[in-house]
Structures are given as structure tokens and as C-alpha cells.
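Input C-alpha cells:
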């Protein structure tokens, strides 16, 4: 999972990441979000709203880790939702996530 968070940190430094449920929701609705990362321990209402938005607007969603790890990767406090707003970073993060998952099990 460290590779995923490392790539997420690069995307953040490049200015291609938005954090927070409200901002990410707007990025999804404006079709700027290419990938959304949702913390596994986010509030149930937040999870439902983000899942529904991603499904409706056809944005790839990955449920990952916890709010503390997601926040640490983006250089801040706890974050429930992070959107990656660049196609190349989104693909790289998604590929690294898939690789991590296949190595686990």
C-alpha cells in the first residue's frame, strides 16, 4: 500500500488532488475527478453519498485503508475522501492498487 500512498503524495505535490467530502463531491459532479479514494472508516453517510456520486457520474472508486493514512499521504490531517483529478495519476494509482491487492491474496 506504500506505493499507492507514495504515488498519491506525488499527485498532491503536482496539484492534481482534491481532499474532503464536499470538495471531492463537487469535483465528481463537474467531471474533473478521474479516481476517488474513500477511507474505509469514513462516516456511513459520507460513504453512501460518494459511492452514489461516483456510480452516477461513472468515476472509478477505490475504498482504501483509513482516514489517518489517507490524510498522511496527502500531507494533512485525517481525510475521508480524496479525488485524483488527472488521468495519468489516476491510472498509475489504480494500477499500483491492483498490484498491491494481487500480491496480498
Amino acid at each position: 500500500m506504500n506505493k499507492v500512498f507514495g504515488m498519491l503524495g506525488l499527485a498532491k505535490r503536482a496539484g492534481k488532488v482534491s481532499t474532503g467530502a464536499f470538495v471531492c463531491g463537487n469535483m465528481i459532479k463537474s467531471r474533473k475527478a478521474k479516481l476517488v479514494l474513500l477511507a474505509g472508516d469514513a462516516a456511513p453517510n459520507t460513504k453512501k453519498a460518494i459511492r452514489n456520486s461516483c456510480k452516477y457520474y461513472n468515476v472509478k472508486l477505490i475504498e482504501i485503508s483509513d482516514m489517518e493514512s489517507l490524510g498522511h499521504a496527502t500531507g494533512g490531517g485525517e481525510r475521508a475522501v480524496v479525488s485524483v483529478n488527472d488521468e495519468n495519476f489516476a491510472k498509475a494509482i489504480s494500477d499500483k492498487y491492483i498490484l498491491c491487492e494481487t500480491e496480498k491474496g
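The first strand starts at residue 17 and ends at 19. Helices lie at 2-13, 21-29, 44-57, 67-73, 87-104.
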